[in-house]
Amino acid sequence: MKNLLIATTALVATAGMASAEITFSGKGEAGMYQTGKTKAVAAVAGVKTTASAADATNTQIVLSSAGVITTTKATGVATGTVVTAGERVTARLALSNAQAAVEAAKVLVQNATTHALVDTANTAVALAAKNLLIAEMTLSSVLGSAKVAAKAGGDMVAYSGYDMNVAVSAETDSGIVFGMGFDMGAGLIADQNDDRAMDAQGAVIGTSALSATMSGYTLKIGADKIDDVYDDTQNGDIGLSGNVGGVSFNLVHDLTDEVVAKAATYTAASSLVANARAITTAGTVFDLNGTAIVTTGTTTRATGDSDYKVATFTDAVAATVETTSLSLGGATGAISWSLASTTGNDSGDSA
Fold first, then answer.
1. Is the pLDDT of residue 214 over 50?
2. DSSP characters for 240-289?
3. What are phi and psi of 162, to 5 degrees?
4. pLDDT at 59 over 90
5. Could you give the C-alpha distances from 273 to 116, 238, 302, in angstroms and in order?
6. CA distance 96 to 102
């Protein structure tokens, strides 16, 4: 009975399709093209810098003038000194050692058998992660960039490539047209409509947005598959387009949750804590047993204690912006007009 019910449901779902088709389109191209010239670029030496922002309150991960990145409550102005070849080698070695330390710390966590050993291992992981970030930042700052020699244009190069598009569409008895498809290709094809550059066709085949069209309106749904109408570097998840009173519109929304950017942070293990009690009146305070209550100094937290806090490291978080873009277009007599807007461009600003 269960199998019969599933089969019946499938028949009902497919019976509503009036027609379905798959279409293939594309092109292949081969030829010769002339390479462009390359501008000369001078080599850029690696530079050691100090913290560029004065902040004596918050702990920052900064690169000191000695070329070592540390966590500090730093103040100062950006300065720089040229890095030597030996310092670049040292930075690469430090990065390799930091990567190995992270893996070793993870093994400690896996092998920990007591609460105290877990605390110690977690502290080691946090410290290793901080040191790895320090090593990566150090290497990035000291490497610089190599010299690029100028090259005149004129070399002739052979090329070939193809671009193929596959589209699948189906129409229901109620007149709704559904469509999906994908693009595939390889090699190079000359861009004849824009800057005549050679366009690579090796895109990865992936899922496309699903479109549903009825009565002149089209709804599209696909995670990051719909072109933002304002910014080519952004994509949306759901879109609606059509025409109302002679004005065409295209609305695209991105469902990504907004995230505020956060810098990487490192907090050392907390082993000392100030006593919680304080004297509210002059003189010594005694408890009910006549023992003086200690009101100054610190108490040591031991590894494994319930109030012991291990070191923590938090990776930096990049900002994301949930956007809505809208384009409008129409004509008044011989004058055509268009408008595009967004709630968040690449800088996160409305435009």
1. yes
2. EEEEETTEEEEEEE--PPPB--B--EEE--B-EEE-S----SSS--B-TT
3. -140, 155
4. no
5. 19, 52, 11
6. 10
